Amino acid sequence: MTIEELSAAAKAASRVLATLPRERKDEALVLVAEALERRAAEILRENVEDLSAARAARLPDALIDRLRLDEDRLDEIVRSVRAIVALEDPVGEVVRGWRLANGMEVRKERVPLGVVAVIYEARPNVTVDAAALCLKAGNAAILRGGRAAKHSNRILAEVVQGAVIEAGLPAAAVSHLTTDREELRQLLQQRAHVDLVIPRGGEELKEFLVEHSLIPVIYAAGGNCHVYVDSAADLEKALRIVINAKCQRPGVCNAAETLLVHRDVAAAFLPQVIDELGRRGVELVVDKTTADIAADPSLKRANKTHYETEFLSLKMAIRTVESIDEAIDHVTMYGTGHSEAIVTEDVTAARRFTQAIDAACVYVNASTRFTDGGQFGFGAEIGISTQKLHARGPIALEELTCAKYVIWGAGQVRDG
Amino acid sequence: MTIEELSAAAKAASRVLATLPRERKDEALVLVAEALERRAAEILRENVEDLSAARAARLPDALIDRLRLDEDRLDEIVRSVRAIVALEDPVGEVVRGWRLANGMEVRKERVPLGVVAVIYEARPNVTVDAAALCLKAGNAAILRGGRAAKHSNRILAEVVQGAVIEAGLPAAAVSHLTTDREELRQLLQQRAHVDLVIPRGGEELKEFLVEHSLIPVIYAAGGNCHVYVDSAADLEKALRIVINAKCQRPGVCNAAETLLVHRDVAAAFLPQVIDELGRRGVELVVDKTTADIAADPSLKRANKTHYETEFLSLKMAIRTVESIDEAIDHVTMYGTGHSEAIVTEDVTAARRFTQAIDAACVYVNASTRFTDGGQFGFGAEIGISTQKLHARGPIALEELTCAKYVIWGAGQVRDG
Question: pTM for the full model?
Fold first, then answer.
């Protein structure tokens, strides 16, 4: 089957999925969950194949960790599918509706996008999450996983597709490819058949898509996230939030990279936060004011490049600012519009920060780590969008739909 | 001022506009409306300059008509601005909001996009409509009008900018350019400063943007629209709707191009609709079945190219279909996803059509001509989007915004 034939089959399947009632889609998803449980041993065996190959190829430990499945992780995947079953059907929701002066009824209704292609790398759970979210939203999914996870993705896609067929839905509702770049390029040309491409991967994948995709793309991009500790912060909350945002899982996009501290609380806060971060193995780079206040000659100096960097590791920049405005300017200059937090007890400062910061998620007195479809109650997500158009924040069910206007009349015509 | 400086100034202005309360924006819009009225004579004089140049250059009559302002048209522009004043502020609307199990409050709030560039051709009203919509939605606007309207657009932009300054808002809230293609190319590179580009023009402009824009684009595209007269149609309504959809203003994107008639009503409906269209000067091309039923040897035969064409003139294709499914297949094959209508008294047929047709606007028993921001009650519009992502249908206030999540907590951190 060529890429064009596969895309056309997905489009045909999407027309069937688009008008299915919720119960038919949920039945299929329950069968997916059951099949994943029934075939767990087989799935884990295939995953071992990928892990062995990855170790033999000396792939980085972080990648091998993302690749690895075990019973707990498989349980979590199944739980995600069941969580998606429990969610309301987004399709058919009347987003707005009103009656015009001439009696026509206008309704803006949520409808599926059609065919969604998801391009991802090593994490096998994306295969199931993406297929389940697309199916629930009435879309056909074309999944293109990374080469490193090919055995795991193949068996997972086979299990999902088997359940879809068992539920009486078209097999092309879910397709899986392990293509080379040339075939990926072909997929990115299928604008007659594919409605949306979602890349979930690094900057290199993103640049490839910017260059080659004729299809609209939503980028699940990186996050250079900040925590700003205001002059009116509760320093106990501040400490807890900074430690969590930096250390709880440093390799992910919603982890914090730079800490901004208001000058008025710097003397009280910096020594303890530097001590606590240091004890957790966080390497620090700090501006001159911070170094002076902390009076620790071992602290390395931060530069512009540090402020621009998404470390994705136990490393953090600290800068002392003179005002909330300076904090906002820093975030505006260096942030990637992902997740930004202020710690303050001052309602005016909180409102000023949430209004001025242009990011997908802005937190008052909470960790940036909450930016996640599961945490937000969306069941699962395909990634976090930092773009403004269509989807911003977790890409979940609602983001996998679009709207159309349906207008009911009684013979009305326009006269002006 | 270079294009980059102008774009950066617009970005800085957009940060001021983003947090303005509604009353400040409405005050500025009222000043815009008043200034347009006060300087009407001056505006019309500049428009005469453009019209003279257009006639001297022997530009097409249709373009000269789009270019022309008169007192009525200027009044209509002012009415649009006042209608936008009367609309609710889209900014700050809580689209969804809920409390998580851990007590955090999550709110998805509507916020401005930032800087919106609108690229358009001859119609001077777009200068004012686009500026007013962008301002109300808290965005800075960069307007790039067509060369043919340069005098009209320059004076209109000057009037708008004067009112904006008088209202105490930054001058760069509205900028106007009459650039050549090279400068337009530069504008399309300013992805650090410009958040969205909306082209409103022909296919050539669209292809230029597909090729050159690094900025997200929403296309205000053409419409190959259909009216399907079902077997259960009220033929009196059908006749009225077909005539209106084709003849009331044939040169616009929501006018109908092809009429599909169910075989069961063809003998009753075709002779009268062919007669009425003919009397209004509509040139017809028809399929063989239609020709046989109409028994009119003067009718020319329709081919695939006719079905693909947006005539934008008093020309129409007619095809007789055997079933609603054949009508849906025709629309799916040839439609551009703009506006599609079914005429029927059968609720099952109406629901089948509205669900199966993948278009921005689907009508039951009403003319496709209603697809318009003003008609829908949106005050004005920048165009009709036929894409699925972000905006579908009229591009008005809501489509000029995006969302961000604002999360209020009490020190919550994530533990899993």
Answer: 0.92
